[in-house]
Amino acid sequence: MEVVQILCVFSVIALSKAFKLASTDSCPNTDGIGGFCVFDPSKNCVNQDQCPSGYKCCPYGCGSQCLAVTVNFHHLGSCHAQMTGTLGAKSCGHDQACQTNEKCCSGHCVAVRKFSAFKLASTDSCPNTDGIVGICVFDPSRNCVNQDQCPSGYKCCPYGCGSQCLAVTVNFQHLGSCHAHMTGTLGAKSCGHDQACQTNEKCCSGHCVAVRKFSVNVLNPITNQ
């Protein structure tokens, strides 16, 4: 009986040395990996609230990004939803041998989700209007004072010398539909996703297309300015 107990103790010690339990949502090792050295608001995060479920704001290169995380060595995702094949993939015996966005599927490390995700944007975030000249004389039909003066999908944002009701984004998904685009794609900016376009545009068939107005007239204009 004593021999069995001793063997059990040694087995536990051996296992604890072989596999240290990971903290829930532990950041992946990114030592030696280069990242963005110029802050990119669509990729670089400041806190965990900016990252989607299954990702954590972790050090990456010069800053931090929302990276795929592990939970007690069990990598999130499913082999049934694999994003890549196994040709040339790293051999493995368990998930821990793979990147945090991969799972050990049929003896090979397979990517089942993205390693780095776009961070969540604040709902109704104002577009960047640095360097854009607006109206410097108060126009009650165009300049807003508070959010109540702007229609749905628009926000009272800084614009030139004052504020106007500007098109806003919601979690990087630009509002509007490509089916209702207002302009063609001739000479339009190329894109791979909505974030590459103005807030009143969507990425339609690889080009930024205006699907609504960038600035609209205010509701209930104030006339006693």
UniProtKB/TrEMBL annotation:
Gene3D superfamilies: Elafin-like. One of its GO terms (molecular function) is serine-type endopeptidase inhibitor activity. Pfam families: WAP. InterPro entries: Elafin-like_sf, WAP_dom, WAP_four-disulfide_core. Keywords: Signal. The keyword Aminoacyl-tRNA synthetase does not apply. GO terms for biological process: antibacterial humoral response; innate immune response. Residues 1-18 form the signal peptide. This is WAP domain-containing protein. GO terms for cellular component: extracellular space. Residues 20-70, 119-169 form the WAP domain.
